[in-house]
Automatic annotation (TrEMBL):
The keyword Protein biosynthesis does not apply. This is Putative disease resistance protein isoform A. Keywords: Leucine-rich repeat, Plant defense, Repeat. GO terms for molecular function: ADP binding. It holds the Pfam family WHD_ROQ1. InterPro entries: AAA+_ATPase, Apaf_helical, Disease_R_plants, NB-ARC, P-loop_NTPase, TIR_dom, Toll_tir_struct_dom_sf, WH_DNA-bd_sf. GO terms for biological process: defense response; signal transduction. Residues 13-180, 573-743 form the TIR domain.
Length: 1081
């Protein structure tokens, strides 16, 4: 009955990954980071958290974990062989691997040499020490196991290498993802099927249908349900595919039913496509024992219903959240993505219409591409208007290298459903090169997969695409003449149709490509008389390259080196974070992981990877000096050998000096050193400084400065870490959080600054220019004015930034502000002006000969402008005056001609700002995507609203987001109302009344209709009042003539009315809620 046994499958693995490691060596560092990476990527990972004593036996729970794991990662560190427990673990792992079942072993040689592993010095000594405790036979078993383990393809970490530990971990995660799939959206679909399976009675045989369109994921759901229930008390577990072939073999059916008859069976029949098949399957299934569960997958729901199957689950397309999860996973092998890519992914999601296979193929092809290159690739997909999956697959195929295309065809035609190792050997023998790298590319692009049995498979759509190409070119047979063969496309047809018995290739004298002898493609190798020859050094003009076979009619090819334009972000600072560290101590491990965590959060981080021993920072500005000057936050990692480096000490001096002068935060990290040793220069730090004093005997001041710098840095608030304090990744999370609190990076400045710089024309020395910046409160006028001021201040003789003019004028009067301008621009700090009039006279006298840059922030009255800026004639040639206000009319009435309206943030900018405030990163997490879009739609690009909403959502779970957004959309947050109310408070009484009328009743109405209704109340002043509200951007008129008002502004207005009588709505001036009106009447 062996023919039937292949369909009776073992239970699924409980764990995706089993980690074997020496706890003391790597638990809290490398292996800890690796475990976190695996966990974050959704892999079920077993990591034993106990330290085992010498001679201890492996507990049963650990044995079961090894038996129940699919992938084994063995971290071979310096002291690994000193643990008998670790050695026994390796023996068990190799035993389980030998059983097959699609398992995979990845050894990680953590700064140990894989060659002759068991005989290396450290391992040899460790095994010799074991003779005191164990007999020679057991030690020989360990040696054999280590030698065997060293033969597996793995990763080797090199002490002085250029690859950092976090980069090795990324490679491991990528390899694991190729062997273990974690399908997106599977969990809730499985739960729906399980509910149908087990909701009824256990009497009899219960059947459930899974239906849905092609490539929607029916098999994935069925396989997931099968694995989930594979250890739940059934007598047999069977998964039947190729059902048509099975039913045609009567012997097979008889054997199967002899085993399954009246037994409790969990069975799946996959891809049923006709009524006869389904009828036969149902007849067979009813011979199973009571309590059996049967799942049948089919495209046609009506087919299932017509045969009496009532419990049917129809696989739905992906939601937006699931689509984003899959795209991010396939494009970046990550759980989050930079906000820069969200627009691209939105377009992909819209194009794919939630179809998982389309999303997977496109996402895989976008892997590793810049935003610009993703845009280019997406345009090609969007040109495929009917979303033909085969044409979409062709785009991925065409992006492959020539050899990768050949290998994919080879696999499709000859190697499908063979184990990965066999496929690799076959390709290696055929192409005479190691195919591992090319196979990885095919896996990454989802053109092939590795199933749970370790076999290489192709999706039926991929197989169809390849067959379709061959058939397409065969259809051109009548047009092809032998003399026109210039590429393999035509050669294939000739071979298939004109040379049925084969003939020597070199006899085809008329073929244009035979300047040299030709390498035959895979599909020709079976013809005995066709010779495989080399075409190396052929001229490219006539040479038919392999890719001609996949559709290129022209044999002339031009390859262009791809260049990725760097994403140009202009910040006020070049770097968000500067890391100072001792390279030999921490570069590969801790600091490398810190750098990765910071960059993943979106922080532009300065991290010097290549360090030169003894290099000092020169007095002239160096790369490091410039980086220090252009960094926001400094993280200084004090490790054991930090103070022995003069470069590190000079770097610390520069950091402290610059941070004190510019108020930049410094965050110290005491990594396995005592802060008191750093501050008091005792212990290893004392020894290092004593060594420097001997070396720089004639420069004692230099060492004294270093001592003082160390003392100052040790007194700063930071983090201390030593053995027993937990995992290093937990410390890094704290550092990143601490840095994020210190960084407040404005969003959306780049193009606005470009436009304002054009208006400002700071380089010109002719004339005096007044520039107005206006917009609603909270739109970012002051932020823009500050950025503009900072960017051009160095070009002027006299500078003054006068902020909060409106508030300060009310508190202190205009004379005080005039005195402030004089103090800032000409240094007359003790001057006392008797009146505004005298101030005007003195300002004109003092400033006429100077090139002045003056900013007046938040002007709200013409009297302020008259007293503080007067006319351009007050200032010397080349002067610039920047005025921010909410009132455009105020600027125009004062003769300001250059006026810039600050608009709401664009979608991408708003998304970035919200993410920075809500997640402290520019990354987008797909689980939150729907909630993010609710917040973005609600805030409509208003920076202040985005900041307040985002900050309030920080650290909350999805359920809390839902609840909080409900609150915003119903009763607005009071802090926001107070901020938005600033614009309202600046209105006169008539303007306030009309604003409240519109907020309560007329939003969305035609302007003409509103004017008709309220004209009796406002009379002749109505038009002027509407103009004021428009100028203050409290309302807008759209292209259809309707009055528009932002939701936040509308709710602020309505809240003002509510507060007139919170407990008794009938006493309010306006009623708009039907419930309130009904209560009052």
């Amino acid at each position: 009955m062996q023919s039937f046994r292949r369909w009776v499958e073992p239970k699924a693995f409980r764990y995706d990954v089993f980690l074997s490691f020496r706890g003391w060596d790597t638990r809290f560092s490398f292996t800890g980071f690796l475990y976190k990476g695996l966990f974050d990527h959704g892999f079920r990972t077993f990591m034993d958290d106990r330290e085992i004593d010498k001679g201890s036996q492996i507990p049963q729970t650990l044995r079961e974990a090894i038996e129940d794991s699919r992938v084994f990662i063995v971290v071979l560190s310096a002291n690994f062989a000193s643990s008998s427990f670790c050695l026994d673990e390796v023996v068990l792992i190799l035993q389980e691997f030998a059983k097959g079942k699609g398992r995979w072993i990845l050894p990680v040689f953590y700064y140990v040499d894989p060659s002759h592993l068991a005989d290396s010095d450290s391992y040899k000594r460790a095994l010799e020490d074991q003779t005191e405790w164990f007999d020679s036979q057991r030690i020989q078993i360990w040696k054999t196991a280590l030698s065997k383990l060293a033969t597996f393809s793995g990763l080797r970490l090199i002490r002085n290498g250029s690859i950092l530990e976090y980069q090795y971990i990324e490679l491991i995660l990528k390899e694991v993802s190729r062997h273990v799939t974690c399908p997106v959206g599977l969990s809730h679909r499985m739960s729906k099927v399980n509910k149908l399976l087990f909701s009824g009675s256990d009497v009899g045989v219960h059947m459930v249908g899974i239906c849905g369109e092609a490539r929607i994921g029916k098999t994935t759901v069925a396989r997931g349900v099968y694995n989930f229930n594979s250890d739940t008390g059934f007598d047999h577990y069977c998964y039947f595919y190729n059902v048509g072939d099975i039913l045609s073999q009567s012997r097979f059916v008889n054997e199967g039913m002899a085993i399954l008859n009246q037994k409790k069976v969990f069975a799946i029949f996959e891809d049923i496509n006709d009524s006869k098949q389904l009828k036969n399957i149902i007849e067979l299934a009813y011979q199973f024992g009571s309590g059996s569960k049967v799942i049948i997958t089919a495209r046609n729901k009506g087919l299932l219903q017509s045969h009496g199957i009532e419990s049917i689950y129809e696989v739905e397309r992906f939601s937006k959240t699931e689509a984003f999860q899959l795209l991010i996973l396939k494009s970046f092998n990550s759980t989050s993505v930079s906000a820069d890519y969200v627009t691209i992914f939105n377009r992909v999601e819209t194009y794919a219409l939630g179809h998982p296979w389309t999303l997977e193929v496109i996402g895989s092809n976008l892997s590793g591409k810049s935003v610009e290159n993703c845009e280019s690739a997406l345009l090609k997909y969007e040109s495929i208007t009917n979303r033909d999956i085969q044409k979409i697959l062709e785009e991925s195929f065409n992006a492959l290298e020539k050899c990768q295309q050949e290998m994919l065809i080879h696999i499709a035609l000859k190697l499908k459903e063979l184990e990965l190792g066999v496929v690799e050997d076959e390709l290696c023998n055929y192409y005479k090169v190691c195919p591992k790298k090319d196979i990885r590319v095919l896996l990454d692009k989802s053109l092939i997969k590795i199933n749970e049995h370790g076999q290489v498979t192709l999706h039926p759509s991929t197989q169809d695409m390849i067959r379709d190409k061959i058939a397409r070119f065969e259809s051109k047979s009548n047009e092809i003449k032998m003399s026109n063969i210039t590429c393999y496309t035509k050669l294939y047809w000739y071979w298939n149709h004109s040379c049925p018995h084969g003939e020597p290739l070199l006899e085809m004298k008329e073929a244009q490509t035979w300047a040299k002898k030709v390498e035959l493609p895979v599909f020709m190798e079976e013809k005995p008389n066709w010779q495989r020859k080399s075409i190396q050094n052929c001229k490219s003009e006539n040479l038919g390259f392999w890719y001609c076979w996949v559709g290129a009619e022209s044999v002339k090819a031009c390859w262009m080196a791809g260049s990725e334009r760097s994403s140009s972000r202009v910040w006020h600072y070049e770097f968000d974070v500067f890391i100072s560290f001792r390279g030999e101590d921490t570069r590969l491990g801790f600091v490398g992981n810190l750098y990765k965590a910071l960059t993943e959060k979106g922080f532009h981080t300065f991290f010097r990877e290549k360090l030169v021993r003894g290099e000092e920072i020169a007095a002239s500005p160096s790369v490091v000096e410039k980086a220090i000057q252009h960094s926001r936050v400094f993280v200084v990692v004090f490790s054991q050998n930090y103070a022995s480096s003069t470069r590190c000490l000079e770097e610390l001096l520069s950091i402290l000096r610059f941070s004190q002068d510019n108020r930049r935060p410094v965050l110290p990290v005491f990594y396995y050193v005592d802060p008191s040793d750093v501050g008091l220069q005792t212990g290893i730090y004392g020894e290092a400084l004593a060594m420097h004093e001997k070396r720089f005997n004639s420069e004692s001041d230099k060492v004294m400065k270093w001592r003082k710098a160390l003392c100052e840095a040790a007194a700063l608030s930071g983090w201390s870490f030593k053995h027993g304090d937990g995992y290093e990744y937990e410390l890094i999370e704290k550092i990143v959080e601490g840095a994020s609190k210190k960084i407040n990076r404005p969003v959306g400045l780049q193009y606005r600054m470009l436009e304002l710089n054009g208006l400002l024309d700071a380089a010109s020395l002719s004339g005096v220019h007044l520039i107005g910046i206006y917009g609603v409160g909270g739109i970012g006028k002051t932020t823009l004015a500050h950025a503009l001021y900072d960017s051009v201040a160095v070009q002027f003789d006299a500078l003054c930034f006068l902020d909060e003019v409106r508030e300060n004028a009310m508190k202190h009067g205009l004379v005080h502000l005039q005195q402030t301008i004089l103090a800032e621009t000409v240094g007359e700090k003790d001057i006392r002006l008797p009146s505004v009039k005298q101030g005007i006279t003195l300002l004109k006298q003092r400033l006429q000969e100077k090139r002045v840059l003056l900013v007046l922030d938040d002007i709200n009255e013409s009297e302020q402008l008259k007293a503080l800026v007067g006319s351009p004639g007050w200032f010397g040639p080349g002067s610039r005056v920047i005025i921010t206000t909410r009132d455009r009319q105020l600027l125009e009435s004062h003769g300001v001609e250059k006026i810039y309206e600050v608009e709401n943030l664009a979608d991408g900018e708003a998304l970035e700002l919200l993410c920075w405030k809500a997640f402290k990163t520019d990354k987008v997490y797909p689980d939150f995507i729907n909630k993010i879009y609710r917040a973005l739609t609600y805030a409509s690009g208003l920076p202040l609203a985005l900041e307040v909403i985002g900050s309030n959502l920080f650290g909350r779970e999805i359920v809390e987001w839902e609840y909080t957004l409900d609150l915003y959309e119903k009763i607005h947050d009071k802090d926001i109302q107070k901020i938005l109310k600033i614009s309202f408070d600046a209105l006169d009484e008539h303007e306030k009344d009309l604003f409240l009328d519109i907020a309560c009743f007329f939003k969305g109405c035609k302007l003409a209709q509103v004017e008709s209704i309220v004209s009796g109340r406002y009379g002749d002043s109505l038009k002027a009042t509407i103009d004021v509200l428009l100028e203050k951007t409290l309302i807008k008129i759209d292209e259809h003539g309707r009055v528009k008002m932002h939701d936040l502004i509308q709710q602020m207005g309505r809240e003002i009315v509510r507060q007139e009588s919170p407990k008794h709505p009938g006493n309010c001036s306006r009623l708009w809620s039907p419930e309130d009106v009904a209560d009052v009447l």
